[in-house]
Amino acid sequence: MARRKNRKRTSDGFIFPAPLAAILAGTTFVALSYLWFSGRCEAIGAQIKELEVVKSELHKRVVNEEFKWSNMKSPRNIESIIKEFNLDMAWPEEKQIVRVHGQAALSVPERAGSAENQYVQHTGSMVND
């Protein structure tokens, strides 16, 4: 007697193993993730380089402006401006100068009332040197 084959159990098509498909899908996911992260890192690296260039340019500008400011407030420049505008001004004498050092100025309120020291009242306006 010849046995008949069950047609439901036999397949004529190409069978792709499921574990191999899972491994290939995982490998594809890892490869695409690596490429995406690599691209992001390169883009962020380019941004960092651009920002470093901007930072160095700003630092040069700050140094230049500090140099200009120190030249503007030098005694020689102040004297030349006083002469240019024909102002009758002179530097204060040593006895007219009140030196304030750190916290010591806050702990000596009796000096503020003395006749020999003169202080300007605070009017609320901002004064820059």
Outline the fold blueprint:
Layout: H1 18-72, H2 75-84
Percent helix among the residues?
40-55%
Largest sheet report: none
What is the succession of H and E elements?
A: HH
Distance between the ends: 115 Å
Shape category: rod-shaped
Number of strands: 0
What Rg do the Cα atoms give?
41 Å
- Helical stretch tally: 2
The secondary-structure class comes to mainly alpha
Indicate the proportion of strand residues. under 5%
Seen as an oligomer or otherwise, the chain set is single chain
Describe this entry's structure for a reader.
The protein is 50% helix and 0% strand. The protein has helices spanning 18-72, 75-84. The relative contact order is 0.03.
Keywords:
129 residues, mainly alpha, 2 helices, 50% helix, rod-shaped
Task: Describe the structure concisely.
By secondary structure, the protein is mostly helical. 50% of the residues lie in helices and 0% in strands.
